């Protein structure tokens, strides 16, 4: 039987890291025990399978990414190490044991050879895989580096930190550019929107902060979701992104005009740790504290058009379901008939835009 999305994958521990292969139907996950898994996924029932796993990390795997050509898988860990694995064999090709002096929290691949890592102490390091040691080592943040993003020219590295600041680093010239003013909560995620004209940051306060490109000092706009936090954001189109939250709901959010479009799916009652978008752009994968990797069909999000006109919605209204599996209408929750059983807190479809 063919399904709309691949079946759930159940792990022995929650996954922190999640990454899709750039060309093949492969999904990599790194869990809190330090294990890295690569799965081949399929919409045909019973066809999704584990290809290999690696237990080389001594502590929690925090982040991972496939190389541009898809032949290598790079992972970073709480054990301060960077691992480079061969995707075909699952073999460890290279280990940088003490890449940082404190646990590494985030990873971003710049190109075929360069990669950036951010640690729990607020340091950023840039690595050239052809050389020994980091080629850039800068510390401007006071707290952990939660996420990183890159401009299309691969010149500026943007960092979201637990100190509430957006950092800007010039990786062509290996220098620090500036820090934004501090926001009220931890900045947990960062991505480019509106064809690079806007930068969106998620926060632990449940607010999305927007910055103009080249106006990184202060926010241009902010948008509070009725969510406990925004732990991860993934852009689907130039205007629309998906957010993962500790309330277990994956929301589709339009940027300028700022609207919560609806719910893509959920890990019922469990925080969502990470999101990733497939190479074809049709599937969103999520990992939750329920030890599950779930897949969501986001094809129809590409045709969503949000106009400036705001419709008033009654208070306490439910989020609009944007997929057949949203609100738990899938195999796992088939026995639960009432929405109220699945959604612990009703949320409004739209939030007020703030200044």
From TrEMBL:
Domain of life of the organism encoding this protein: Eukaryota
Location(s), subcellular: Nucleus, Nucleolus
One Pfam family recorded for the sequence: WDR55
Residue ranges crossing the lipid bilayer per the database entry: none
PANTHER family: WD REPEAT-CONTAINING PROTEIN 55
Repeat (WD) residue spans along the chain: 138-172, 272-306
Function: Nucleolar protein that acts as a modulator of rRNA synthesis. Plays a central role during organogenesis.
InterPro entries in UniProt: WD40/YVTN_repeat-like_dom_sf (IPR015943), WD40_repeat_CS (IPR019775), WD40_repeat_dom_sf (IPR036322), WD40_rpt (IPR001680), WDR55 (IPR017422), WDR55/POC1 (IPR050505)
Gene from which the chain derives: WDR55
Entry's family note: Belongs to the WD repeat WDR55 family.
Protein name: WD repeat-containing protein 55
SMART domains, per the entry: WD40
Family annotation (Gene3D superfamilies): YVTN repeat-like/Quinoprotein amine dehydrogenase
Coiled coil: none
Gene Ontology biological process terms in this record: rRNA processing
Matches recorded under PROSITE patterns: WD_REPEATS_1, WD_REPEATS_2
Keywords: Nucleus, Repeat, rRNA processing, WD repeat
GO annotation, cellular component aspect: cytoplasm; nucleolus; nucleoplasm
